[in-house]
């Protein structure tokens, strides 16, 4: 398995970002920047398509080295967001994601995160998954809970976003011998 692309019929497709995705991905980040910046630190750093291209190239290099895996989320062939393993360490990965507002409430990210975990778990590559999300990010907290992640702890002052620090809720989900444990 090369982990380049996964199609989940009828509407969902996860694929490694390509340089040809630069324009579309940059435009979507710009469109969503104000909303994303409430919970994520990086959107304010993306000010030019060259920034997006540099990220795509770095993400692909990190994927080749086994450090992370970032996937474009497409719904009915339209770019809807990103789902990723921000870090991969041994058989554990930290999941990150963001979704354009137009696709929220449709189960897109729940399906994307579930498919990504099952894809890597079934191949025996990963068995432990972590989600960290801001305490005030209700959508991300609900997603973790809905997918069966267990609250582990609250990390105080975990991330600086803009001019303030955000506490993170940390959730864990583990597979033991092919089933959730």
State the shape: globular
| Largest beta-sheet details | 9 strands, mixed
SSE order, as H and E? EEHHEEEHEHEEE
Q: Please give the domain count.
A: 1
CATH-wise, what's the superfamily? Gcn5-related N-acetyltransferase (GNAT)
Number of strands: 9
End-to-end separation: 25 Å
**What fold name stands as the CATH topology?**
Aminopeptidase
Which class of secondary structure composition applies to the elements? alpha+beta
Please tally the helical runs, counting DSSP H or I stretches of 4 or more residues.
4
CATH architecture label name: 3-Layer(aba) Sandwich
Tell me the helix content.
Answer: 25-40%
Query: Beta-strand percentage?
Result: 35-45%
Radius of gyration: 16 Å
Which consecutive residue ranges, at least 5 long each, have pLDDT under 50? Answer: none
Q: What is the mean pLDDT?
A: 93
CATH class: Alpha Beta
Walk me through the structure.
This protein has helices at residues 22-36, 49-64, 108-122, 138-146, and strands at residues 5-8, 12-15, 69-75, 78-89, 92-99, 128-134, 150-161, 164-176, 179-180. The chain has 181 residues and is of the alpha+beta class. The protein has a single domain (5-180), classed as Aminopeptidase (3-Layer(aba) Sandwich), CATH 3.40.630.30. Strands 1, 2, 3, 4, 5, 6, 7, 8 and 9 form a 9-stranded mixed beta sheet that branches. Strand 7 (150-161) and strand 8 (164-176) form a beta hairpin. The radius of gyration is 16 Å and the shape is globular. The two termini are 25 Å apart. The mean pLDDT is 93.
Topology (elements, then pairings):
Elements: E1 5-8, E2 12-15, H1 22-36, H2 49-64, E3 69-75, E4 78-89, E5 92-99, H3 108-122, E6 128-134, H4 138-146, E7 150-161, E8 164-176, E9 179-180
Parallel strand pairs: 5-6
Antiparallel strand pairs: 1-2, 2-3, 3-4, 4-5, 6-8, 7-8, 8-9
Helix pairs in contact: 1-2
């Amino acid at each position: 398995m090369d982990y380049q692309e996964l199609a989940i019929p009828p509407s969902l497709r996860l694929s490694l970002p390509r340089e040809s995705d630069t324009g579309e991905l940059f435009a979507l980040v710009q469109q969503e920047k104000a909303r994303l910046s409430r919970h994520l630190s990086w959107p304010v750093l993306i000010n030019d398509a060259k920034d997006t291209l540099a990220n795509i190239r770095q993400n692909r290099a990190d994927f080749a080295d086994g450090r992370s895996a970032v996937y474009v989320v497409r719904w009915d062939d339209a770019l809807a967001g990103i789902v990723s393993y921000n870090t991969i360490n041994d058989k554990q990965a930290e999941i990150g994601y963001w979704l354009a507002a137009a696709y929220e409430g449709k189960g897109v990210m729940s399906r994307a995160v579930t498919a990504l975990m099952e894809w890597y778990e079934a191949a025996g590559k990963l068995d432990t998954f972590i989600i960290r999300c801001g305490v005030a990010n209700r959508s991300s907290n609900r997603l973790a809970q809905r997918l069966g992640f267990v609250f582990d702890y609250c990390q105080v002052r975990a991330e600086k976003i803009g001019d303030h620090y955000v506490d993170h809720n940390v959730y864990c989900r583990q597979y033991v011998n092919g089933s959730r444990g």
